[in-house]
Design goal:
Layout lengths: L1 H15 L4 E5 L20 H5 L6 E5 L1 E5 L2 E12 L2 E11 L4 E12 L5 E10 L4 E4 L2 E5 L2 E12 L2 E10 L8 E11 L3 E11 L2 E12 L6 E9 L3 E13 L2 E10 L3 E11 L8 E11 L7 H9 L7 E14 L2 E10 L4 H5 L1 H6 L6 E7 L4 E7 L9 E16 L6 E14 L2 H7 L4 E13 L2 E3 L3 E25 L2 E24 L2 E10 L2 E17 L21 E21 L7 E20 L12 E10 L2 E10 L4 E12 L5 E9 L3 E10 L5 E10 L4 E12 L3 E10 L3 E3 L3 E3 L3 E10 L12
Parallel strand pairs: 1-2
Antiparallel strand pairs: 2-4, 3-4, 4-5, 5-6, 6-7, 7-8, 7-9, 8-10, 9-10, 10-11, 11-12, 12-13, 13-14, 15-16, 15-44, 16-17, 17-18, 18-19, 19-20, 20-21, 21-22, 22-23, 23-24, 24-25, 25-26, 26-28, 27-28, 28-29, 29-31, 30-31, 31-32, 32-33, 33-34, 34-35, 35-36, 36-37, 37-38, 38-39, 39-40, 40-41, ...
């Protein structure tokens, strides 16, 4: 909306400093290029010359006349100043008062910004910087602005009368905003008076004042009415307004008949698009005095018995920020504070799907060609609800494979040091007797590799490495007798260090065969690539074992090894011709063949050479497959097969279909033995058409029941979108002494939006 009123101001400003004038009049009856007799600038008197303002402009017209101290331009008048041009059918310019009057097809455009202004008539006083413009129409995508009249009151101040703003076809707008008057300050701040929002000829909102910063996005007002079996009738609202060019405020006021009123305030900030430094972030707060924090009395009794006592005063506070502080330095922060572990699920369930447990960390990261380093500060702000690891702080240095000067040897390593603390939720403490612990840890991993190639095709890479870890405290488990009860406990063993020496060798090669060079649906030709590998590792056993080490992450699980990991990777590839700018001449496109993996499948496992009595010699089998049989289809699968249990311990797969109109259908499959076996689907059909369909489905295979169904039907006109949605969530099934099933939840809602601004400010919640 910035350029809507700014264009009007620039049109007036263009004429403000009009000039010493270079005037050209073309006689339509004269040969091309001839100057009309009696009207050239050379015949103007010296007195007239001295009264003109100083500057440099260009005026052309079919006919120029000089009457007393006025210049009269008739027919195809054009006044150009730099990149800006104003045209009209008839323009008079008074060289004494510096007033220009234009009428008939008055038009302004700027070739750099693309801003335009059109109207029937206008006058402007360049000396006083005041003027008046007649009926006008301004285009600034996606907006059209029409006003009955406008005036330049002062330098940088304009007034518009009876203003209409719309993103629709202006002749018959389905949606429009009308203001009786609007003031424009410095071509950036617009303050409307008596503002009414109209939809299909009906007024839907009135605001006595409406302020817009034209340097930022326009003000947004989103409304979402609906009905839910748990919430009752509800109305969710969000009011977003730019505070300045980098800061957006979004205020939430929600009403839920069964649960009460909720308040929220968000602030979102981001750098200018043209800024060399990148930064973006937000702080989001929400509060409600919840009249129904539990879905049912049965759920309340069950959760209270498990130690979850939800206070009706519920809140969520979340902070995120990412910023580049130098060319290779980045700061990332993510923090959240919750009143209870269910508040995000109840009111922001889309966020819950992505992050059920909030992160609380600040990271400083430095990237270099030879290494990356950083400092992490983690603090669990919700430890009464969630278990986690605090890093207070922890520094690290990661060195990827790097050649050692000019030698044939390579080095890679990872190093870290910090104060670590494990925290446990109240539930873990009460139900499992978990007790928090902390220690200092200094860790270093160092490996030297010697890559070699034999027979022109066989890669052999021997290596030797050292991993050392210092712990400020270690422990041993003990059992004590308290009367007739046996109590588990720990006995501190003090500081200790673990030293692991590793030797190993890795070998691999690549073999391929061109199956044919004929065109196929996915490209040209077909090639099969085979990449087998084998990797032997030996780490002798040390005195300090994981059973005596406080566990925080994968570093604390390192132990002796004597195994061979081996696997095979298969690829089926084709070539697709593509075009790209030439490296030597970017203006010229050049064609080349791009290799595309249609199928990429890898299988690997490990054989333990000195397995324990309770271990299987053949370890878990890992399967990783990516299939791209067509541009419109993607299939990925990740699976683990447990040889000891004789079953798959994990399977994740995803199948996606894409349409040229941005339609898509995605299926996800998750399997964990005795935990879940779920298929879920998300789809969006015909999103660019008048009628569209969006939805989400989750089906639990073990129970043989649907768990959730969401469907949203949309209808879009040239500028307004309408949507009707329904959602159903199955009640939770609890199998204890007696099987308990909560009541199902369902909700329905109606939404409306401007198609020029498809991203909404609201979340449904449950």
């Amino acid at each position: 909306m910035k350029s809507i009123f700014k264009s009007l101001g620039m049109a007036a400003l263009l004429v403000t400093n009009l000039p010493i004038i270079t005037a050209r009049a073309q006689n339509p009856n004269s040969p091309a290029g001839a100057t009309q007799s009696g009207n050239s600038i050379a015949q103007v008197s010296p007195q007239l010359r001295s009264s003109r303002p100083q500057g440099d402009s260009d005026i052309s017209a079919d006919k120029l006349e000089y009457l007393d101290k006025k210049i009269i331009c008739v027919g195809n008048v054009s006044i150009r100043r730099g990149t800006q041009t104003i045209t009209g059918d008839y323009v008079t310019y008074d060289t004494v008062t510096d007033i220009a009057t234009a009428r008939g097809n008055v038009h302004f455009d700027d070739s750099v910004t693309g801003q335009t202004w059109d109207g029937d008539e206008a006058w402007y006083n360049f000396r006083e910087k005041t003027g008046s413009f007649g009926t006008s129409k301004i285009y600034s995508a996606p907006f059209t602005v029409e006003s009955e009249s406008s005036r330049q009151l002062d330098d940088g101040l304009q007034e518009l009368d009876n203003v209409m703003v719309t993103t629709c076809i202006p002749e018959d707008p389905e949606f429009r905003i009308h203001a009786s008057k609007a003031m424009v300050f410095d071509e950036t701040i617009v303050r409307g008076r008596n503002v009414v929002f109209w939809l299909n000829g009906l007024p839907i909102l009135y605001l006595p004042r409406y302020t817009v910063d034209l340097e930022r996005d326009t003000t947004r007002f989103d409304v979402l009415p609906g009905y839910s079996s748990r919430q009752g009738a509800y109305l969710l609202t969000a009011y977003g307004i730019p505070i300045n060019e980098n800061l957006l405020s979004v205020s939430h006021l929600d009403y839920r008949a069964n649960r009460g009123i909720g308040f929220g305030q968000d602030f979102k900030w981001s750098a200018d698009e043209e800024s060399a430094d990148f930064w973006r972030g937000a702080i989001r707060g929400y509060y409600t005095d919840d009249d129904m924090p539990y879905k049912s009395m049965e759920q309340e009794e069950r959760q209270r018995a498990d130690g979850l006592d939800i206070d009706p005063e519920r809140y969520r506070l979340r902070f995120t920020h990412i910023q580049t502080v130098a060319e290779r330095d980045l700061i990332y922060a993510e923090m959240g504070k919750l009143s209870d572990p269910e508040v995000v699920l109840d009111f922001f369930d889309e966020e819950y799907r992505a992050m059920p447990q909030p992160e609380n960390r600040i990271s400083y990261i430095h990237y270099d060609d030879a290494f990356s380093a950083g400092l992490d500060l983690h603090k669990n702000l919700n430890e009464e609800f969630f278990s986690g690891v605090n890093r207070l702080p922890e520094a690290y240095l990661n060195v990827p494979r790097l050649r050692i000067m000019e030698s044939p040897f390579y080095y890679e390593g990872f190093h870290s040091a910090g104060q670590l603390e494990a925290t446990f939720s109240d539930s873990d403490k009460e139900r499992f007797g978990r007790v928090g612990y902390d220690t200092q840890r200094v860790h270093t991993e160092n490996t030297v590799l010697f890559p070699t190639r034999h027979f022109g095709w066989l890669n052999v890479i021997p290596r030797i490495g050292y991993t050392g870890t210092f712990y400020g405290d270690t422990f041993e488990s003990i059992e004590t007798t308290d009367g007739t009860n046996v109590v588990d406990g720990v006995n501190s063993l003090g500081a200790d260090a673990r030293n692991l020496v590793e030797i190993g060798v890795e070998s691999s090669f690549k073999a391929f065969k061109v199956l044919h060079n004929e065109p196929i649906a996915q490209g040209v030709g077909m090639r099969h690539v085979v990449e087998p590998f084998v990797n032997y590792t030996l780490i002798p056993e040390q005195d300090l074992r994981p059973v005596n080490i406080y566990q925080f992450d994968r570093i604390d699980q390192l132990d002796h090894r004597n195994d061979v990991r081996f696997g095979l990777r298969n690829k089926w590839q084709t070539k697709r011709p593509v075009s790209r700018p030439s490296p030597t001449n970017p203006a010229r496109m050049e064609s080349y063949n791009q290799i595309v993996d249609l199928v990429d499948v890898a299988v690997s496992t490990a054989y333990l050479l000195d397995a324990e009595d309770d271990e299987e010699s053949l370890g878990t089998v890992f399967f990783d497959g990516e299939f791209r049989p067509a541009d419109w289809m993607v299939f990925d699968v990740r699976a683990q097969y447990d040889n000891g249990a004789g079953e798959f311990s994990r399977v994740n797969s995803q199948l996606q279909f894409y349409g040229e109109d941005r339609s898509y259908v995605a299926f996800d499959h998750y399997y964990r033995p005795d935990q879940n076996h779920v298929i879920q689907s998300e789809y969006s059909l015909w999103p660019q058409n008048t009628i569209g369909l969006e939805g989400y489905t989750r089906y639990e295979i073990l129970q043989g029941e649907f768990e959730e169904q969401t469907l949203l039907a949309t209808y879009k006109t040239d500028c307004v979108g309408y949507g009707i949605g329904v959602r159903w969530i199955a009640g939770e099934v609890i199998e204890q002494d007696d099987t308990v099933e909560d009541e199902d939840e369902w909700q329905a809602w109606f939404q409306i939006w401007l198609t020029a601004f498809p991203n909404g400010l609201l979340e449904l919640g449950r």
